[in-house]
Amino acid sequence: MNAAGGATVLEGNYSNGAARFVLPYLFGTDAGLSGFDPATLRHSRFIVLWGANILEARLGTELPARLLEARRLGARIVSIDPRYTDTARRSGAGWIPVRPGTDAALMLAVLHVLLSEGLADEDFARGRSRGFDELADYVLGRDGGGPRDPAWAEGICGIPAGEIRRFAREYGRTKPALLLPGYSIQRVYAGEDPFRLSVALQLATGNFGRLGGSTGSINNRLPGPRVGSLDDLDRPENPGVPILRWPDAVLEGCSGGYPADIRAAYVCGSNFLNQGGDVSKNVRAFRALDFAVCHEMFLTPTARHCDVVLPAASPLEKEDIGIPWCGNWVAYKRAACPLRGSARTDYDILSDLAHRMGFGEAFTGGRSERDWLDAFLEDSDVPDPDALRETGIYLAPDQERTGLAEFAEDPRAHPLGTPSGLVELSSPAWARDTGLPPIPVWRPAPEEPGFSLLLTTPKSPLRTHSQGGDLGTPASSGGAVLTLHPRDAAARGILPGAEVRIRNARGSTRAVAELTESILPGTVSLYEGAWYEAVPEESGLDAGFASDLGGSANVLTGTEGSPPSTACVMHGIPVEVERIG
């Protein structure tokens, strides 16, 4: 697109948009060095999985095995989650069921216990952060707003105050403790603040940058071995829109304040229509386009709304370099089988189009796919590219890195790339850029009257996002399932296996009810990724709703996002559930 003159580009991502937005305010230019290697879990004595269901929603291929290893070595594990997940079950974790979207309030209450009961290492925190005392004043109520203590948090989070205190005391007394915040806690309204507070908790307990501890940041924020990737011919003048708002940008254009009137879309490697917020709006956006094309292996909901579908090769048919999500290694994957039918690799498709449009050399640089791969490896940290091609993996020498360890050990000798050189728990830049308080605070989500349940849309262990989300695949055998507590089901006359409608102001979808006490009352759960299947207009079903028969969770989510990052809100969605028939 850039070789052709540019295009409107999408900014941010659906995975961790709020966290990625806020981490530079905390760590400055060192945000990309704030993670940890999975092997360090064997040194942990206490592991807090805060919304991190890592055996089902993977945060790196190595992490699940390392978690179970840490358990065998005697680490105590606690899962803070609205659901008692398979990760909690298989790791023998204690369970603290928290109301979706209230993690920041719970973190403030935990910090209150640490401060008020002398469990915080205040000197450690002060020496490594800017604004710790300012945050402490807010937590202890010295700002005039009352203490943000366990009794205050109980009514918000649904967790008894005594249980909050017990957890905080164990967390404060056990060293080293690793706090792993999952992406779920930032896929909520005000999802930026939980990540600021997870960092504050690790500072307060003295576990920040310690082997077996963590900074409280995203776990994969450490670089692996350096290796090249295809240059995108960057054009800094490209207009951009937040990824969550792409349908709004299409539907509203310049008249709605967006930078361009978008008439065409080119989609690679994404089931955009299904996986973005507010599917019914996404459908309207695709219908408003003059032209849409995608690369795809299957006739997904997105592909069905495109004018042209170019058959794309599967990963098994492609040779490539594998960059891990987390860990200090790199992989090389050969093609496991030859191309079949009319499938072509993305690079081959784009190269052919570039040549037909007159700028092939600008895109390819005169190189084939294999030429690029060879060039990337020759100019990389991999000492023996031939050995990598043969074995398929290169492990860098250090497999137990703890992010920002040198800074934590001596902050004066190793300052961070922030204005103060410290972790900025109080950030003037944040306050200036966002209009919000400089410290993390509790920001409740707006209420939506008429909807008494909160929906979570977690990852299914049977598929990756919408891969396998077609109702005709084995991964979707039996259709979509809505998990709810027996108390909520009884109040609505819903029996196990009953067909139910989940609805809110945006639309409705259908699923089969599964009753379990492994979910917090008042919370319901629908796995994301099921393919959208519109209710036929002539059926007369669900009149007045943007309706779906496939169990697509994003029929119920929106494009407003979390301020100020405009990151997606996929949990804590107000809904109502009713029996069908």
Polypeptide structure, described:
With 581 residues, this protein is an alpha/beta fold. Helix content is 29%, strand content 15%. It has a 6-stranded mixed β-barrel with strand order 15-19-16-18-17-20. A 4-stranded parallel sheet has the order 4-3-2-6. The chain has a 3-stranded parallel sheet with strand order 8-9-10, with no helix packed on it. α4 (103-116) packs antiparallel against α7, α4 packs parallel to α9 (192-204) and α7 (150-157) packs across α8. The longest helix has 14 residues, at 103-116. It is globular and about 70 Å long. The model has no long low-confidence stretch (mean pLDDT 95).
Fraction in beta strands? 15-25%
Q: Which architecture of the largest domain would the CATH scheme give at its second level?
A: 3-Layer(aba) Sandwich
Q: What oligomeric state do these chains adopt?
A: single chain
DSSP summary, beta strand count? 20
Shape: globular
For the record, the count of structural domains works out to 3
Structural category is alpha/beta
* Radius of gyration from CA coordinates: 24 Å
Low-confidence stretches: none
For this structure, the CATH topology of the largest domain is: Dimethylsulfoxide Reductase, domain 2
Q: Tell me, rounded to a whole number, the average pLDDT.
A: 95
Distinct helical segment count: 20
